[in-house]
Amino acid sequence: MITRIRTRISTLLRSDGGGLEDVPGWAMMCLAAIALISLIALLGRGAAISNSVQAAAFAAARDASLSRGGDAVPHAIAAANTSLNGNVKCQTLDVQIGGNGLHTGLGQAGTVSATITCVVSYGDLAFPGWNLPGTFTVTKTANSPVDPYRER
Q1: Helix (H, G, I), strand (E, B), or coil: what is residue 148?
Q2: What share of the chain is helix, strand, coil (3-state, %, to 5)?
Q3: Cα–Cα distance between 104 and 114 in angstroms, integer?
Q4: Nearest to 131 by CA among 102, 82, 92, 89
Q5: What is the pTM of this model?
């Protein structure tokens, strides 16, 4: 079968007969290939955005678990923004810190959770700079343990 395809392609390339009847078929195959490649790129970009938001959630949870007192939320927001910088352009970014790790006593284990909600434009999903209408939301959560023997 491969030999037959190779022979057909070489005949089309070397032929002086014009072969106009084959042009619509080739054009449709090219359009289908472009559409398939675009779909693969779109899905890959969506996965990259999801992974970037998950990494930002891990960074926010870790930074919040290392902070002391009431400065956990500003540290988590800064860590999330730093992690997302250059990877994902969020129209709105919401960082929520929860868990019992910041309020446990000395010697008690606890965890801090960070939930990040990022609203991304479809234009940034397809190809950055395109102004396609609509948005989609990516929400990711991560947990980080708090050292039970550190100063609170």
Answers
A1: coil
A2: 50, 20, 25
A3: 17
A4: 89
A5: 0.74
* Signed CA dihedral, 115, 60, 120, 33: sign only: negative
Tokens 């289908």 belong to residue: 32
> Over the stretch 93-128, which tens digit does the pLDDT of each residue have?
999 998 887 777 778 888 999 999 999 887 766 666
DSSP three-state, residue 96: strand
Residue pair 90/109 in contact (Cβ under 8 Å)? The answer is no
Per-residue model confidence as pLDDT tens digits over 44-97: 888 999 999 999 999 999 998 888 767 888 889 999 999 998 888 888 999 999
- 151's CB contacts (< 8 A; 6+ apart) are 68, 106
